[in-house]
Specification:
Elements lengths: L2 E4 L3 H4 L19 H9 L3 E4 L14 E7 L6 H8 L5 E5 L2 E11 L9 E3 L10 H19 L8 E3 L2 E3 L3 E3 L4 E3 L2 E3 L5 E3 L4 E2 L4 E3 L2 E3 L4 E2 L4 E3 L2 E3 L4 E2 L2 E3 L2 E4 L2 E2 L4 E3 L2 E4 L2 E2 L4 E2 L10 E4 L4 E4 L8 E2 L4 E2 L4 E2 L4 E2 L4 E2 L8 E2 L3 E4 L2 E4 L2 H13 L7 H14 L1 H4 L2
Parallel strand pairs: 1-2, 1-3, 4-6, 7-10, 8-11, 9-12, 10-13, 11-14, 12-15, 13-16, 14-17, 15-18, 16-19, 17-20, 18-21, 19-22, 20-23, 21-24, 24-29, 25-30, 26-31, 29-32, 30-33, 32-34, 33-35
Antiparallel strand pairs: 3-5, 4-5, 27-28, 35-36
Length: 391
């Protein structure tokens, strides 16, 4: 069955993660939201996103058929309800449109509210970045169900202790002298991934394809590392989208990190305030700080951003796209895209230099920064330029 995943108001509330992608391409666990729906539907899944991202998803045409909110995590119960929707009938949950079966091509913003009925079972809707790390346990469990039908090949396990048997190992995995506890949740090690000596893992946990856990890494679930990452030090209840590095000691907890990010040695993220009160975070919609209603809440970092050595980031810090953060002391809790600096202040990161750095970083993984992605970065720069024009 073919589907269309559409971005709704959650696209804005998930900025800066969604500046460069649809909500559907957020990777919660081994698979992205889009890939999870693809496995359930076994059909073609198209994406309907905001205007400037539409070239990345081959246009933004009206759609006829099953449309699903891209911020909704799939479940077998929800999929069963969607499959039996009558024509021009849909589902909603607590005021949020979940799915709709349209008889004729329409834009998702035009879904008739009167045709929606309440879905009475529990579902997960990703509305804010803390919903990502809070949902990882269930997202990884779904991935384990998908992978259970797949067979893994012989794996190199040397002097490794695996506690429990709730583990999936992809092809070409190497694990040397590690301790992996799967009794606390499933553990998925992707194709050609490596877990180096002395690493300690507590599930639920995902290490994506071609990713590495550096020597002595300490991982607390539920956490997921996307493909082509290098992770060291201590990580707790966090998600790395992919192609990002935290190769040294330092702590990252209750955080969500985009692609092509890099953490300098001994970068540390605070995830709990000293007075144990709720964490306030920057909201792009209201251009102000809001109460996250979370006691544990760390960093949200957009694509292509980086920290220097010994960087300290406060609870609830939000860093935009292509920013460079460095220096002693705590920088502000909101750092706009294309920023350069630290506690002593920020200047605008020259766009051409930022793009040149992105190209060089991506070339190291044999990936080109194409014209579409370059235009997306240009749009983000123009959108957030007002933060510097005010100064």
């Amino acid at each position: 069955m073919d589907l269309c995943l559409f971005d709704s108001s959650q696209w804005e509330t998930l900025l800066p993660l969604t500046y460069t992608r649809s909500v559907a391409d957020l990777r919660l666990g081994y698979y992205s939201i889009r890939e999870k729906w693809e496995h359930l539907s076994t059909g073609k899944v198209s994406i309907h996103s905001v205007d400037y991202l539409s070239p990345k998803y081959q246009g933004k045409e009206p759609y006829a058929g099953i449309m699903i909110n891209s911020s909704v995590l799939p479940s077998l119960q929800l999929w069963d309800a969607i499959k039996v929707l009558s024509v021009n009938e849909g589902l909603m949950k607590d005021g949020t449109v979940v799915a709709y079966n349209s008889s004729e091509p329409i834009d998702p913003i035009d879904i008739p509210q009167q045709d929606l009925k309440e879905f009475d079972a529990e579902i997960i809707i990703i509305k804010r970045y803390w919903d990502v790390f809070k949902s990882l346990e269930k997202a990884i469990a779904l991935d384990m169900e998908i992978l259970s039908s797949k067979r893994s090949s012989k794996t190199e396990l040397h002097a490794t202790e695996i506690i429990g048997d709730n583990i999936f190992l992809g092809e070409g995995v190497q694990i040397n002298g590690a301790i992996i506890n799967t009794k606390t949740g499933p553990v998925i090690i992707g194709n050609h991934a490596e877990v180096m000596e002395g690493s300690v893992i507590r599930g639920p946990f995902v290490l994506g394809d071609h990713s590495n856990l550096k020597m002595g890494a300490k991982i607390y679930g539920a956490s997921s590392i996307g493909p082509h990452c290098k992770i060291g030090g201590e990580v707790s209840n966090s998600m790395f989208q992919g192609f990002s590095n935290k190769g040294h000691d330092g702590f990252v907890g209750n955080s969500v990190i985009g692609e092509w990010c890099n953490f300098g040695a001994d970068t540390n993220v605070s995830n709990l305030k000293n007075n144990y009160s709720n964490v306030k975070v920057w909201d792009y919609g209201t251009q102000s700080y809001i109460d996250s209603e979370q006691q544990f809440c760390g960093l949200c970092m957009g694509d292509h951003s980086k920290t220097g050595i010994n960087t300290m980031l406060n609870t609830g810090t939000v860093v935009g796209v292509s920013s460079n953060v460095f220096g002693s002391g705590f920088p502000p809790k909101f750092i706009p895209s294309f920023s350069w600096g630290g506690e002593s202040g920020f200047s605008e990161y020259d766009f051409d230099k930022a793009v040149d750095t992105a190209k060089r970083v991506m070339e190291r993984r044999n990936i080109d920064l194409n014209a579409i992605d370059s235009d997306i970065l240009s749009h983000i720069r123009q959108k957030e330029g007002h933060f510097f024009s005010k100064k």
